[in-house]
């Protein structure tokens, strides 16, 4: 998915300087962004108060939207570099096309994982015949320097491992949780899991003390470590935890995001993650000139143009608040 904000501003992120090395409870409010067609998203990362959680650098939550009489998601071809995109649905379908020739319909609780490496482009759209509701999340994972120029590739996994406990079903999207490992390719120590809780459930989720974590609320009412978290909000939890108390006030859906704090300083502009302003400028020029990022075949419409660059130089500065 693309960042369609036409007033795109650079985000400086990464580095350990502002990692919270102890448990905290920091509730993050979303910013509302129009994402083409009839889709409005709630953007949780990057956030004014928190730029990254581990290698997770971008989090959008959308829906549930009634698109029975609407085109639904319509994101034209656009580029990516230096990151992985993670598409995750609770309801509806999304048709993925990319410049490698991939064509895949993604359905609820299936992992669509696109590794951009040095350069890729893709589009995302609701199929012409689609379900009434569309509800999901789009996330980016920053690639570490040693892997950020890997060959671009796309993975689709419909069968993912599930961890269960009383009142809890946890689908492991990326990384490992309680001994269950996702088949999705990762390049940093990371975890992503979809948590389904039945109303009245109280449980504790095992965590890695060295990871920092956040929980995104997708639906229902739940308390995370005693803090009420409503749909479209995210609770940052810091590091130093070995378990996480969860309590469902109704049937609820959450996403657990975590990972080892990302050491490297980054520059994120539009749909690019790089290490210098010059690198971002070159990527934008390459996209506008039609080179490097390939071509998405089959999408009915024009590709996206890149937003204008800011007048001030783009510089990596590490984690800031």
How would you characterize the overall build of this protein?
By secondary structure, the chain is mainly β. The protein has a single domain (about 25-260), classed as Jelly Rolls (Sandwich). The protein has one helix at about 275-290, and strands at about 10-15, 25-30, 30-35, 40-45, 55-65, 75-80, 85-90, 95-100, 105, 110-115, 120-125, 135-140, 155, 160-165, 170-175, 180, 190-195, 200-205, 210-220, 220-225, 225-230, 235-240, 245-250, 250-260, 265-270, 270-275. Strands 2, 14, 15, 16, 17, 19, 22 and 24 form an 8-stranded antiparallel beta sheet that branches. The chain has a 7-stranded antiparallel beta sheet with strand order 3-4-5-12-7-10-13, with no helix packed on it. Strands 6-11-8-9 form a 4-stranded antiparallel beta sheet, with no helix packed on it. Strand 14 (about 160-165) and strand 15 form a beta hairpin. The two termini are about 25 Å apart. About 50% of the residues are buried.
Question: What does this entry show, briefly?
Answer:
It comes from Streptomyces badius. By secondary structure, the chain is mainly β.
Q: What coarse outline follows from CA principal-axis ratios?
A: globular
The overall strand count is 26
Proportion of beta-strand residues:
over 45%
CATH topology: Jelly Rolls
